[in-house]
Amino acid sequence: MNAPDNAQKPRFGIAGIVGEHPRMREIKELVGRIAKSDAATVLLLGESGTGKDMIARAIHYESARVDKPFVNITCTALPEPLLESELFGYEKGAFTDAKTQKKGLFEFACGGTVFLDEIADMRPPLQAKLLRVLEDKAFKRIGGAQDIAVDVCIIAATNRDIDEAIRQGRFRDDLYYRLSTVPLVLSPVRERREDIPLLVAHFLRSYRHESTGQAMQITPEALEKLMRYDWPGNVRELRNVIERAVLLSTEDTLTEKDIVLGRSNLRSRPEPYLFRLPEKGCNLAEVERDLVRQALERARWNQTRAAALLGLSRDQIRYKMSKHQITQESIESPEEEKS
Length: 339
Prior knowledge:
There is one protein chain. The chain is 43% helix and 11% strand. By secondary structure, the chain is α/β, with parallel strands linked by helices. The chain has a five-stranded parallel β-sheet with strand order 2-5-8-1-9. Strand 6 and strand 7 (148-149) form a beta hairpin. The chain is globular. Residues 265-271 and 335-339 have low confidence and may be disordered.
């Protein structure tokens, strides 16, 4: 969950959307209009990696809700029971492990924005609860009897064929109609190739050379190689290619040989790690906590990179950090934690 921060607007607002293709200009204009409206729902459609999370943040940071929280969760990151409790919270005693009352993300985000990624993968029973939030602007915690009023803008996103999901009965048509009041379709990179040089320049400024701290340059041949590629992973894949090239290059300028595309860009799989159970057993929760801590420290507390080290998504590692109460402050100040 992102705390309100107006200073983030230049980074996450419309100014942070890179692209001058006519479709991207149209998207920027629509984002501005949506942000200034009273739209309670927005549906973002597009292939994986096209920047749906970026557009969701831009709508929030350009809106009157900017001073309230922006909450994002991937619907496939957690099993359905956990996803339900994360969204709606629960009352003390609602189930075996419910030792205390817990507020859900809708409560935390009241007045702000909730971004539900991969919404088409949400199970129908949970879809029904979400529909009630949209229609009644209220919900009940798990195990609760009292309605809780909530005022949030819900931005949903999917890379799936949602019409097909409706035909197959996997997605409620009434929920679709509620969400799709304002639909935005994001174009894949291959359909806006003229934006590739702009995206490359943006990522080169972001991933500066480790030794010099300066933004790296790129040769025309290397840029041409990037322009010819079809980018099935879209902007996310392009960002990863540039980041890898910058990290591994020993020069100040990226050349054609630095650009590794397609499956050849994937690092070789590490050797399988074999954990041997001690004779007297172990505490699995402590092992998990220690592995999460090690990954975060190795990644210098970059949650995305730490998640990659453990084969997790960013939402999954955030959940485990919350579960084990892992924060950078608690790890770096063990004495204070003990006292």
